[in-house]
Write a structure and sequence with these properties.
Elements lengths: L8 H7 L27 E3 L15 H4 L4 E4 L4 H7 L12 E5 L2 H4 L11 E3 L10 E2 L1
Parallel strand pairs: 2-3
Antiparallel strand pairs: 1-4, 1-5
Length: 133
């Protein structure tokens, strides 16, 4: 088993370099077949321990739209939009800022006044108090 870079995972599958790819959904690639869901995880918000949102018991997209979020230029655009939508349900824009190329380089970026993206449960180890989104 090997890990694949986000931006090259589908290409490696298409070239035959790998036989199976365990990936986040959604996958909207006409030439690829999506198999069964292996697991599902809740999202958490990763912020610095002294960030103003830490005191909240829960956080809505409306609330986190007050903060800049990281951007990505790897992988399909619809992937990133599924995790960090461009707009809240009420139509407020969610500002995107610095570009991150993989999840590992994103976690340490949680600092004031920016908020890290609504992340996966696997990121809990990077914050002392994960908040349900």
């Amino acid at each position: 088993m090997h890990s694949a870079q986000v931006g090259g995972a589908f290409a490696a599958l298409r070239r035959g370099d790998i036989d199976v790819l365990v990936s986040w959904l959604p996958i909207d690639e006409p030439d690829l077949t999506v198999g069964p869901v292996l697991f599902a995880e809740q999202r958490v918000l990763a912020v610095a321990t002294d960030h103003q949102l830490v005191a909240r018991a829960s956080v809505s997209l409306e609330m986190i739209s007050d903060f800049q979020h990281p951007n990505s230029d790897t992988g399909p655009g619809y992937w990133f939009d599924a995790y960090i939508p461009r707009l809240t349900r009420r139509g407020r824009q969610i500002e995107r800022g610095p570009v991150v190329r993989d999840a590992g380089s994103n976690s340490p970026r949680a600092r004031r006044p920016r908020a890290d993206h609504a992340s996966r449960r696997a990121w809990q180890r990077h914050t002392s108090e994960p908040l349900p989104c």
